Amino acid sequence: MKVYFYHTQDIQRIMREWGEGRFPGHYLYGATQLGDHGIDVVFHRYRPLLLSRWRLILYNTWQILTCREHFDAIYATHYRGIEIIIFLRAIGLFRRPIVIWHHQPMVTAANRLRRSVSRLFYRGIDHMFFFSEKLIGDSLASPNARPERMHLGHWGPDIDFFKRLQREHPAGRHYGFISTGKERRDMPTLVKAFNDTGAPLAIYLPESNDISYRRLFDRLDVKDNIQVNFVSGMIPYELSQKVNRASCVVICCKETKYTVGLTTIVEALGLGLPVICSRNPQFPIDVDKEGCGISVPYYDVEGWRQAIAYIMEHPDEAARMGRRAREIAETRYNDTICAREAAEVLRNLGYRKNA
């Protein structure tokens, strides 16, 4: 069996740097390990997202429809960019099945026209992976939900990548707190809490035209215990080295209905570090219940103060949380398990690819 793997990110760069040991494989959602399950992969030729949305959709549609290599199905990390292919599948003009990762809960559209378009769209998706049971449960309220074609995926860290990084760049003594990631981060709450505690915090944020964190920090009162760093491009290897030297990972986010902050949690699991995070019910892991961290309600500065103080005052317990995080990664959430789950769904499609 052979699948066409579609990603919204730069597949060729990730594959090249993954091969060099400088990029974690979980960004490819198990695609690097599908060969272990008898599934060959055709990798989509990425086009920089400088294109307008419609030009990008047309480019992706052309790439898929004119692909010279035979493939039996599409395996996609997101539906964004392949909407035309999905609609063609829905009306029977594209005969290969489509399996995607769905990052948000399915919703019921507000008006009749949108509901009709949505119903047709989801008819073109054969199977969907979700990151958590909560996402699946919320999606079941949608009339477009087909429970038999909805799957929980245990997306988690590339353990080999993090083990190798820790061997090559040993942390020595872990120190301080660290915040990485860019999406919907609640910096005012985080900064206020760390200002009040005096705990050392390093913040790493992207240089981005569409996220104005620089302007935000121009308005914030940031004390000397907080270091704010702006970085360019995707540099997970370098950032992971910095995260590995910290004592605790902090993930302070605005309220959402999807798994904002999950990528950072996955990195913490892979590195065996405790976390303090916003209490996002969409996360697949309850960090309090699992004993690998502390969750705090959205926008709760006092809750953040207390969590920070607890980690600082209980270093042995924080270390135990980190060991528990690594155990979760090695046994329940990692890219090997993710690949196995994806392969199981894809192999079953191979026998009814024209269904």
UniProtKB/TrEMBL annotation:
<dbReference type="Pfam" id="PF00534">
    <property type="entry name" value="Glycos_transf_1"/>
</dbReference>
<dbReference type="InterPro" id="IPR001296">
    <property type="entry name" value="Glyco_trans_1"/>
</dbReference>
<protein>
    <submittedName>
        <fullName>Glycosyltransferase</fullName>
    </submittedName>
</protein>
<feature type="domain" description="Glycosyl transferase family 1">
    <location>
        <begin position="227"/>
        <end position="327"/>
    </location>
</feature>
